[in-house]
Design brief:
405 residues, alpha/beta, Rossmann fold, formyl-coa transferase, domain 3, 37% helix
Length: 405
């Protein structure tokens, strides 16, 4: 473990050096999480253009993505031209000073630069080499481009998302990338723990978007393997659990009602003025409710349409029935629970305060940090080369003259 920087014992990953080599979402999201908990994360970016995410989606007045300021929080930006052998030499030296390498290039790219994990097996056996790709480092799909959109489909998520008989839909998010990023961060933490044990060493962490998504598929596999059941898309419901659905209220807003526990269902029916259904022996357990799902759903939809969303949620809350509004981000920023939990944080960008989401989970005895927003391209190049490689001004000036950094 590198101890070059002063440790902050209140940050659980303080003193851990992470070299982030990659772009866009999956790897950088893992880097964001590690940085928030104290890791010294240095992000390598190509000179001139940087990570493409800098210019994705909504842009601020300077032409930089709002998203970039969030996902690159607490990271240091170092520009390095990996298309040149001398640039790869610098990267190799940086890796030798790292606890963790985090990369999400297509499998084989790091090897073409002479930076694959086998290069460091002997020279840096404590290195944790974390790789995020679409389909993993081996297998027949390994060389395919691995975007979350395709991997979510291959892993079965898209098959289930939508209404029966209609075109599968996606969430308006790159969900697979974020799920893979969380698995990558977990893999790094597991490898760090393993390295701390007597005789522990570094190792490679192989994360695929496909498998990360498939890991979220609950009972789909055992149900098929054991019972031959192929779970199908089910619209806004969940197959085999009743009632749980989305309903429109009289003010046009949607709410979700999850009344699928036996006693909860009874409270729900009484609360909406259906005491006979609450005591109906046919609906006493989930199996019976599944058999009568259309009837239950029709009753709940009719009740919801008769009241506004605020009143509906009040009635359900009073009856201790799980329910909630379908919130947009405009609703969320005003939600009292989000505010009470400290979900929103402020970062400063050019004298202006920006709102970003805090990281999760919360630790009772350890802090997270929110020191700076996603930096300008190359903002920390000189600092990192000096601190990590002990490079002097003459050496840095030479690299700059050679357009390596």
């Amino acid at each position: 473990m590198n101890k070059h920087n002063a440790l902050d014992n209140n940050l659980p990953l303080s003193g851990i050096r992470v070299l982030e080599m990659g772009q866009l979402i999956a790897g950088p999201f893992a880097g964001q999480l590690l940085a928030a908990y104290g890791a010294d994360v240095v992000k390598i970016e190509p000179p001139g253009r940087g990570d493409p995410l800098r210019s994705w989606r909504a842009l601020d007045a300077e032409g930089t993505s709002y998203w970039w300021r969030s996902i690159a929080r607490n990271k240091k930006s170092l520009t390095l031209d990996l298309s040149k052998p001398a640039g790869c030499d610098i990267a190799r030296d940086l890796i030798m000073q790292s606890d963790v390498v985090l990369e999400n290039f297509r499998p084989g790219r790091m090897e073409t630069w002479g930076l694959g994990p086998e290069v460091f097996a002997t020279s840096h056996p404590q290195l944790i080499y974390t790789r995020v790709s679409g389909y993993g480092q081996d297998g027949p799909y390994a060389s395919k481009p691995g975007f979350a959109s395709a991997c979510e489909a291959v892993a079965g998520l898209r098959y289930l998302n939508g209404h029966p008989g209609e075109k599968p839909v996606r969430m308006n998010l790159s969900l697979g990338d974020s799920i893979a990023g969380m698995h990558a961060a977990m893999g790094v933490l597991l490898a760090l723990v393993a390295r701390m044990r007597p005789g522990g060493t570094g190792q490679s962490v192989d994360v695929s978007i496909m498998e990360s998504v498939f890991n979220m598929m609950e009972g789909v596999l055992p149900e098929f393997a054991g019972g031959g059941v192929v779970r199908e898309p089910s619209g806004s419901t969940v197959t085999g659990i009743v009632p749980t659905n989305t309903y429109r209220c009289s003010d046009g807003r949607f709410i979700v009602i999850g009344g699928n526990g036996d006693s909860i269902f009874q409270r729900l029916m009484r609360a909406i003025g259906q005491p006979d259904m609450a005591s109906d022996f046919r609906l006493a357990d989930n199996r019976g409710r599944v058999e009568h799902e259309p009837m239950i759903d029709e009753v709940l939809a009719a009740w919801s349409e008769s009241v506004c969303s605020v009143e509906a949620l009040r009635v359900l809350d009073d009856a201790d029935v799980p329910a909630g509004p379908v919130n947009s981000i405009a609703d969320i920023v005003n939600d009292e629970q989000f505010k009470a939990r400290g979900v929103f944080e402020q970062v400063e960008v050019g004298g202006e305060m920006r709102t970003v989401s805090a990281v999760h989970p919360k630790l009772s005895a350890s802090a997270t940090r929110n020191d700076w927003a996603g930096p300008e391209l190359g903002a920390h190049t000189v600092e990192v080369l000096r601190d990590w490689l002990n490079a002097d001004e003459a050496q840095i000036a030479l690299w700059q003259e050679q357009k390596l950094v």
